[in-house]
Amino acid sequence: MTFPKINILFLFLSILFVSCKNELATNTQVCILIDVTDERFRDDNFVSENLPKYLKLMNLDKNTGGFSGGEIKFSLINEVSDSKSKTIKISSGKTGLLGENSLNRKDEVDKFYVELENSFTDILNSAKWGTDASKIYQKVTRELIKMKKVDADKKYLIVYSDMLENSMLFRFYGSNWKNQIEKMMADPENTLQMLSKNGPALPDLSEFEIHIISTRTKENDEKINISEQFWTTLFEYQGALVSFNSGLEI
Prior knowledge:
Elements: H1 3-22, E1 27-35, H2 46-57, E2 69-77, E3 85-90, H3 102-126, H4 136-148, E4 154-160, H5 177-186, H6 188-198, E5 208-213, H7 221-237, E6 241-245
Parallel strand pairs: 1-2, 1-4, 4-5, 5-6
Antiparallel strand pairs: 2-3
Helix pairs in contact: 2-3, 5-7
């Protein structure tokens, strides 16, 4: 009479073993850039609303943990081509029956979350909000080049900005801005060559997902539409998967 019980126990252990064995821990790299020209990103709830989304990109969850690893970098877009940043890392956990205890792993994810929260808040609090100049192309390109040097299963660049460049390279401002931007969009190859002569060259982006989050108003809606077309043209020309929305949709 004990034979069926043994079979049931064996079946349960087999399922458990296979499920643990098949659990895959991935390595994800995330870079988050915040444009200080838009003070709407200073919202008190900004950090708490978005951190869980960043964890989800890494296959992690504050409540349940997870065994994947990687890094999240926070930095600013302002009037200089590079600026203060903070990078928080978490190593991948060992999976399987002989792997890391899930409760211990959850504690590590909790610690990772707290470090992210503190770093993100510190970056935002230290920002000089409301500046006029915005060197978006140079900052974004420098970060993409840095990310290219890191091995990761997935790479995400998340940019909180209207993407309205205002630098010596080109501008979404002035009397003739629209004609200039449309000419640049019409020939992305020539545009990228021109930009590379005056700043870093935009690299191959076939391994990247780029999410751009902008805030629209009645005053800037037309510019944001053209900005979306412009940056999507350049990034997709280099092979990236591009998303342009009013919020981070994952």
